[in-house]
Amino acid sequence: MCVILNDIMNIQKSNYHHTIILYPGIEKYEILQEVMTPMINELNDLVINGLKDSTGKIWKIKPYFSSDWKFLSIILGFNASNANYFCLWCLCTKKDIGNKNKVYTIEKNMNQLDPAFFNHHSSEKPPPGHIKPPLLKIIPLDYYIADELHIMLRIWDQLWLLVLQELKMQNRFNDSIRAVIITEMRRISVTFQFWQDQET
Length: 200
Ligand SMILES: [Zn+2]
Hints:
By secondary structure, this protein is mainly alpha-helical. The protein has helices at 29-49, 69-75, 110-118, 148-169, 175-187, and strands at residues 51-52, 58-59, 65-67, 144-146. The chain contains five helices and four strands, in the order αβββααβαα. Residues 87, 89-90, 92, 104 line the site of zinc ion.
C-alpha cells in the first residue's frame, strides 16, 4: 500500500491509499525478494530519476517504509525479534531492554549494509543481526517506521500487565477487583475473562 505523505488533507482517506502490490503468499524473505523485484526496480528508478508529470515537471520522490516489526525485519534482512541484537535501528542488545539511562539513537545506516552485502570486493561486515541484504536499500534506514497500531498494542499489553502486577503486589487482586475489571471491559465491548489455574 502506498500513500502520499505530503497530501495531509487526504492522508487518512482510503481513496488515497494505493495498492501497489498484492501478495497472497507467506512472509518469507526469499519469496518476497522474488516477487518484489519489479517493484524494487521501479522504486529505484523513481528515487534516482524522480517522477516526470504530464507538464514535464520532475517530482523528487522520498520513500518511507512502514509495517509491523516482523515485516520490517524481513524487508531489512534482519534476524528474529528474540535475538540478542534485535533492534533495526541501533546496536542495542537484549541486556539494554529496560535501561532508561541509555540514550538510543539511530546508529546504523544503509551505507554500512550496502558494501557488506552488495560489494563482493568489500571485506566489510554488516552490523550484527543483519543476515541478508536489505530488499529496499534505496530507502534510508531512518525512513523505516514501525507502524503505530502495533506499537500501541504492545504498549497496552505492557501497561495491562503492570496493572495486574500492581494489584497482585498490593494483595488487591480479589473477586471484587475482578468484577470491576470485567464490568469495565463489558462497558467498552471487549470480550474478556479471568481464568483460574486449577492446582494439581
Ligand atoms: Zn535500538
